[in-house]
Amino acid sequence: MSRKLQVRLPGAAPLLLLAAAVAMAVLVILPLVTVFHDAFSKGLTVFLSKLHEPDAWAAIRLTLIVAAISVPLNAAFGVAAAWAIAKFEFKGKSLLMTLIDLPFSISPVVSGLVWVLLFGAQGWFGEWLGDHDIKIVFALPGLVLATILVTFPFVARELIPLMQDQGVDEEAAALTLGASGFTTFWAITIPNIRWALLYGVLLCNARAMGEFGAVSVVSGHIRGLTTTLPLHIEVLYNDYDFVGAFAAASILASLGLVTLVLKTALEWRHAGELAASRRH
Description:
14 helices; 0% strand; mainly alpha
């Protein structure tokens, strides 16, 4: 009969660890409580009026549009990249892995600056774009490109370890039995990664909606046109409209809480598959 090994920490170590955990919890919860407290500090009527302002609606709408474009594109790229890296050997594989991890190692501001240097008025393609009346920087395309660049590792990095762990046996068996590559991909590969894919999409969506640094560089801060919700919060706070700023921040905080609940539910129901996606 096996017995679990129990390790007792000496002296006051357990109390110190407990105190540290409580302190960290307070540091996380206190700002969240402050956001909602200040958002409703002048009552529900004022809170709702701040959210019904045209600039606030425009910022919310733009944030959803940017996320609706960038997240599916990142999901498609993540699945394709993970499938190629996990299932095949090819030249440039290590380079592709490095490129996937690159946004994790550079500042989001740099990620936005890249697009300005390429598509801005003084950028490499700026003159040609201006001659053809094509707007990328300080417009929706620039916001989408900046968001894609900072968020595209999330889906791929969730799927690669899982697909490597699963191997290629099931796909090889299906191909041997006469299934086409397309059928094999949709009938075997996708069902095997569906929960890890959903988990990666959740994280990607949360980052896309909350991104500030990269979109700040390419937006131009044109109120009602190119300000996403995080940028709108900054504008209101700088204008000393604290209730409006915290009201908008409460929307982002609520989205974060919803993401956290969904993330926790996925981890609880599919702990094995998600744990495999984090190996190595």
